Amino acid sequence: MAEPQRVPEAPESRDSVAGAHFLVIEARFYDAIGALLLEGATEALAQAQAQWTLARAPGALEIPAAAAILLDAAESAGEPYAGVVALGCVIRGETWHFEIVAGESARALMDLAVARRLPLGNGILTVENERQAMARADRSQLDKGGDAARAALAMFRMKRQAGRI
């Protein structure tokens, strides 16, 4: 089975986001995979001239709570984030833990994004094995870290265009 093709960016993806400040939360449970995801995400944010703050969570399941805590702190400080990029990896094992972590982290991120009207890029990989994870994380292959950042950027642009920023 062939890997999916990358989708070209929409023309509005060239609209400037200079000065927009994003929160990147990374679960560095798998170091090499996390490093690749982070490289792709930060490269995409840099290309868009966005700023970012990096935070680390213990695992993918903790990313939504970390995002909520850090979003609240930034708002209280009068410096809200423009959006969130979530990065991590869940590799299927022999137990139901995979389904719990994959499903609950995605659900909680979506709940957070909808409740707060938050531009979000979900770059938490859910894969069968490390080979799949590496292919998805590697910038020269599927660049899912970069895709997550570009999704957050696209949602930020949509929110700005809708007059909500």
CATH fold topology: Rossmann fold
Task: Write the CATH homologous superfamily.
Answer: Lumazine/riboflavin synthase
At CATH's second level, what is the architecture? 3-Layer(aba) Sandwich
Q: What gap, in angstroms, lies between the N and C termini?
A: 42 Å
Mean pLDDT: 92
* Beta-strand residue fraction: 15-25%
Radius of gyration: 15 Å
Q: Main sheet, how many strands, which sense, barrel?
A: 4 strands, parallel
- Widest beta sheet: strand line-up: 2-1-3-4
What structural category arises from helix and sheet content?
Answer: alpha/beta
Q: What ranges have pLDDT less than 50 throughout 5 or more consecutive residues?
A: none
**Portion of residues within helices:** 40-55%
- Global outline: globular
Protein architecture, described:
- The protein has 165 residues and is of the alpha/beta class.
- It has a single domain, classed as Rossmann fold, CATH 3.40.50.960.
- Helix content is 47%, strand content 19%.
- It has 5 helices and 4 strands; from the N terminus they run βαβαβαβαα.
- It has helices spanning 31-47, 63-76, 97-116, 130-137, 144-161, and strands at residues 21-27, 51-57, 83-91, 120-127.
- The chain has a 4-stranded parallel sheet with strand order 2-1-3-4, with helices on both faces.
- α1 runs parallel beside α4, α1 packs parallel to α5 and α2 packs parallel to α3.
- The longest helix has 20 residues, at 97-116.
- The radius of gyration is 15 Å and the shape is globular.
- The protein starts with 20 loop residues before the first strand and ends with a helix.
- 41% of the residues are buried.
- The mean pLDDT is 92.
